[in-house]
Amino acid sequence: MNWSLALLTLLHLLVPIYWLGGDLGTFYSAGFMMDEKRPAGERLLALKIMNGIDMAPRTVLILTLPTGLSLAAAKGWLNIAPWALAGLWMFSLIWLALAWAVHLIHGPRGTLARGIDLKIRYAMIALLAGSGVAGLTGHLTMPFFIACKLLVLAACVTTGVIVRFQLVPLFPAIAAMKAQGATPQSDAAIRKVLGQTRPTVQCIWVLVLIACVLGLGTPV
């Protein structure tokens, strides 16, 4: 048995499991956050749970590319030099540490980390989309399904950035709830923001499922 190939396959399979599972947990917890009949303390606890669970999809999004390309190289679908894969893993782990810093660190340092993380996401969108298009047009040699998956991943990162901007008005409403409890104004803001993000998040679910179908159905 090829244990390294089995491990790579397992790691890549865990990506959609934790991605969709984490998103579903966050989606469900949001219902408690929006429930105006609950005390502010319970709703803030639901928010804390949401933020914690949401780090699962945030983590596996970053690990999608290194696990996927490592698996593709191991299966002979892509010709990638070992040093290039090592560099990709190093970059991905640094990006992952940065994403966790955004989650854990507040204040000026957190703002700096958030800005760097956002710039990386913009660069990754361009790189993934460009590579996917190059693969489809024959400018890069890769199987059709991998080119499509690169485009899907670019769309996932893009949609995640959209969600991030959609959530911006939520923060003042949360701060107001923490300071003075729930008010009609804060409730309306929370309801509006979470209502706007729901269809965007559901688009990510569809994209992840498309990537799964591409990986399972067309590995040629």
Q: Topology, pairings included?
A:
Blueprint: H1 3-34, H2 40-53, H3 55-74, H4 82-104, H5 108-137, H6 144-166, H7 170-180, H8 184-217
Organism: Novosphingobium sediminicola
Protein name: Copper resistance protein D domain-containing protein
Transmembrane segments: 6-34, 55-74, 80-102, 122-138, 144-163, 200-218
Provide an overview of this structure.
The protein has 220 residues and is mostly helical. It has one domain. Helices cover 85% and strands 0% of the residues. The chain is built from eight helices and no strands. The longest helix is centred in the C-terminal third of the chain and has 34 residues, at 184-217. The chain is elongated. The mean pLDDT is 93.
Short précis:
With 220 residues, this protein is mostly helical.
Element order: H for helix, E for strand? HHHHHHHH
Rg, please?
19 Å
Shape: elongated
Annotation, overall tally of beta strands: 0
| SS element count, helices | 8
Averaged pLDDT, please? 93
Keywords: Membrane, Transmembrane, Transmembrane helix
Protein name: Copper resistance protein D domain-containing protein
Transmembrane segments: 6-34, 55-74, 80-102, 122-138, 144-163, 200-218
